[in-house]
Amino acid sequence: MSWEVVRGEPDPRLRGCALRLVGFTEAPATPAVRRELPSAVVPLIVSFGAPYRVVSPDRPGEAAAPREGFVAGLGERWADTETTGPAACVQLDLTPTGAHRLLGGMPMDELAGRAVGLGDLFGAEGALLAERLHAAAGWEERFALVQGFAAARMAAAPPSAPGVLRALARLHETGGTVDVRALAAEVGWSRKHLAARFREQVGLAPKALARVLRFRRALRLLGGPGAARSAIALRCGYYDQAHFNRDFRALAGIAPGAWLRARAVDGPDAPVEWPEDG
């Protein structure tokens, strides 16, 4: 397989909404399947090569391969992406509330666990954006096109609810270990209202997002030197190592040891996985 990865700088107009910008190409000799793990990031993928096929275990009959790219909502389960030919795309990783603004206030739980094509989300604008990337002179122009598209849509969208932003920040600060009841009291809402606003502007309820954040923290620690899984389990808020192993398998579809072995085979120069924690 050959690939190229180019990193860009998020546009200042997207401050607080965009976490990472990257462009990449890959031309595998045979279809390449990659396991994408749950995260607190919503990727906007704009494709100008062969499309990616996205398969979710929760929606096995809903395999998406939109030609122009897609937006993938938050979820509590893994998904597999598969190349259908030489691929090329720009990936803009967004906060959930940033994605909510990009989508013009669309309820984010409608995207939960799904990858939805840009044509379905943005109509002709989505297809045109992909075409313009195909005709662009290079990565700098492609990055400018994608970020300009996102910035224009966000500028026309209402701001995110301060209570949601505050609760999101607390969940990230604590790695998902904050008590949801205490979190609701901190922002002055009932648990029911907090859950409803999160589903609308984030895509998952706070408890579900906390589970994902614990999992992502455990992933980072697993990749460190001399990391004992029992210590990682306790540090990340699991009851014990057995609880950690069960939850890991539920979210990743594989055991922690299998994930570490796959990571060692892929190596640090493999094409980037969508989710990175913000």
In short:
The chain is an alpha+beta fold. It has 2 domains: 2-155, Sandwich (Jelly Rolls), CATH 2.60.120; 162-266, Orthogonal Bundle (Arc Repressor Mutant, subunit A), CATH 1.10.10.60. 43% of the residues lie in helices and 21% in strands.
- Work out the count of structural domains: 2
Low-pLDDT sequence parts: 267-278
**Which sequence of SSEs, written as H and E, runs from N to C?**
EEEEEEEEEHEHHHHHHHHHH
Q: What is the tally of helical segments? A: 11
Provide the spatial order of strands within the biggest beta sheet: 1-2-9-4-7-10
Distance between the termini: 29 Å
The CATH homologous superfamily name of the largest domain equals Jelly Rolls
**What is the overall shape?**
globular
What structural category do the secondary elements indicate? alpha+beta
Any idea of the CATH class of the largest domain? Mainly Beta
Largest sheet properties: 6 strands, antiparallel
By CATH, the topology of the largest domain is Jelly Rolls
Task: Say how many strands there are.
Answer: 10
Rg over CA atoms, rounded to whole Å, is: 18 Å
Provide the residue-averaged pLDDT. 90
CATH architecture of the largest domain: Sandwich
What percent of residues are in strands? 15-25%
Helical amount = 40-55%
